[in-house]
Each structure stands twice: as C-alpha cells, then as structure tokens.
Amino acid sequence: MSLRHALLGMLAEGPYTGWGLLKHFEGSLGYAWPALHSQIYPELARLRETGLIEQVGEGPRGSKTYEATAAGREQVWRWLRETEPDRGTRNDPLLRIFFLWLLDDEDAVAWLEREEAYLTGLLAELDAIVAAEPPPASRRERSFRLALELGRATTRARIEWARAARDDVRGWPAV
Amino acid sequence: MSLRHALLGMLAEGPYTGWGLLKHFEGSLGYAWPALHSQIYPELARLRETGLIEQVGEGPRGSKTYEATAAGREQVWRWLRETEPDRGTRNDPLLRIFFLWLLDDEDAVAWLEREEAYLTGLLAELDAIVAAEPPPASRRERSFRLALELGRATTRARIEWARAARDDVRGWPAV
DNA sequence: TGACTCATGTAAGAAGTTACATGATTCT
DNA sequence: AGAATCATGTAACTTCTTACATGAGTCA
Prior knowledge:
homodimer; mainly alpha; Arc Repressor Mutant, subunit A; 3-stranded antiparallel beta sheet; 8 helices; DNA-binding
C-alpha cells in the first residue's frame, strides 16, 4: 500500500518514467521504502488502470512518462491527512540485539563494531547528500531535507548507542 | 526469514508454547519484528518438520511446548555470526516526510505534532518497561536491556527531530 | 451460564523477492 | 562489434495480513 502512495506522491510532483522513479527508489526514497523494478512496473500499470495516473508521453527506448491525475493527487493527500502511519516497522538489526547474548562476548563486541562501522558509513553517505544539495529552496526540497535530517539524527543516535553497547558488553561478567 | 530466526532464538533460550511466543511478539519483540499467530503457528510447524525445534511437552488446552534442537541452536548462531543484517528497512513515517510538502503548512505542522505525541507516548512505554524490570543480571537480560536502550535512544532522537521540524515548517515562506 | 482468556489452526489474498526474458541506445 | 546502460515487462515463490474456524479452561 505504501509503495502505491510513494509512486503517486512522486507523480504528483511532476512527470516521471518508470525508470526515473526506479532511480529515486535506488537513492533517497529507498532509505524509507525499498522497491525493485519488478514491483514498480506492475504497480504503475495498476495505477493507470484505476485512473490515478496517466501516461503523458513516450520516450526513446519505449519509455513511458506518467503523471498523477486529479484523482491521484487527491488520493495522496488523503493518505497523508487521513491515514495513520504504519508503526509496525520491521527492524532486523534491532531483532538481532535481543539475541546478542547467544554469541560469546568477543563475537558480540565484533558484531557491535561492525554495526558501528556500517552506521558510520551510512552517516557519511547522508552527509555527502546534504553537502551536494543546494540549500533547499522549494517546499519539496525542504521536505526532502527534513527526511534527510531525520535519517542523520537517528543514525547518529544509533552510532552512539553502538559505542556504549560495545563498552557495556566488555564489562559483562564471564559466565 | 527473520521470523524463523526470532522463533529459533527464543526457543534456544528455553521452552515456550506457541501462545507464549505470541505474547513476546505482542510485547518487546514486536517492536523489532511484529508477527501474528497466523504466521507463528505455521512457522513453528515448519521448524519442527525440519528438525530445528522439537515438541517437549503438552499443556492444558492442547498447548504445545517447544524447544530448539542442537541443529536449531546452531542455525541461530550462524544467523548471528555469518549473515548480514537486512538493512532494507521499510519506514512508513519516514516515507511520508518526503511528501510533507504536498500538505499545506498548517496540516504539515499538525502532522509533525501528532508524530511527536505518538513518539512521546512510545518513549513513556519504553521507560515504563525499564522502570519495571529489575537491573539486568543474566546475559539474556543484558541483551534485552541493550535492545531497549536502542529503542529509547532512537525514539528520543526522533522526538527532538519532530520538534525542530515543526519549527522549521513554521518558518517556511508562504507559497 | 455467559463472557473472557487461553490456545491452535487454515485459507485467501496482498506485498515483496528472485529469476527469467527481451530489446533499444550509447559509448568505446 | 561488444559492453554498458536504459527501459520494460512476466513468472514463481516467499512472506505477511486479514478473515474464518474451533474448542478448552476460568471467573463472575
């Protein structure tokens, strides 16, 4: 359901090809909602069938350009205003922490250091995006920046946690 | 795949009934990996068929008690040591932020305040769990506490973000 | 006895992943 | 000419959600 609204949201902004949307899902949007071409193309077809988007052009290699219809824009707006965000997020790294105690201390410490390294890399990626973007001018760019800032804030919190957790495990008494 | 390992991880710790596991997924584990009985029972049946868990007893209302076999414990251990955590987390609230600009400023501010209220409630829940639990003594309890601390740390970061984001939107120039 | 909780299952459908399949254009 | 990228689709399978279905024990 969220993929449908993400596509609709992008196409409410302006025209995109399926390929163009795919690239956005490989970049920024993918941090929030990963999607592959095998899911995107059929979903675009469904959205067109239901009249929420329409094809507004054709490009070089059989590419198709879509845009949201009035009904489609209405639908995104309703999604944002009238539906509760899905709070039931699946978080595999968090799940693993519940079972860290099944590893011996060395392996648990190594796991936490790996996690910290990954998160440090992720933060660097997000920082690079901020550095590369011009200061946000449009409302759309301001929203994008807010999303980016949320990613940076939670990633920083996770890095600090990983360091503290490693030190904590090092202090665990031997069994 | 993660549900399978979560069940295996719980049953590596000691015996549980399907119902008992379900209660854990409704509580703490559910913050990391939500699962309903309609998914848990069939998965337990599959784990038993593949010899990763075994039934070790029967209770009052046709309840069945399971425990991980040696092969099952080996499997969780491998999952933790040898597989990369799935980083492709879906995050509906984050996705919506990319499209906040489609709302007018008042609605965007209201959305952010709702989000802050939800997160404040969540933090209170997590704080209550910490307050209710005795200081962690076993390795298992220490792991559990680490998971809880990660939840608290990211929730605090998101609350601060929501406040800053609200103030930011209030400063957006009129269109 | 009636309501509630405990306890387990199945079935249909939606969403997501992996693999298969094809062809056009651009660049070297 | 060959490789890389652009561009779209389908099919099989796994995972997850929603709904259906049943029965035992407990408590007021």
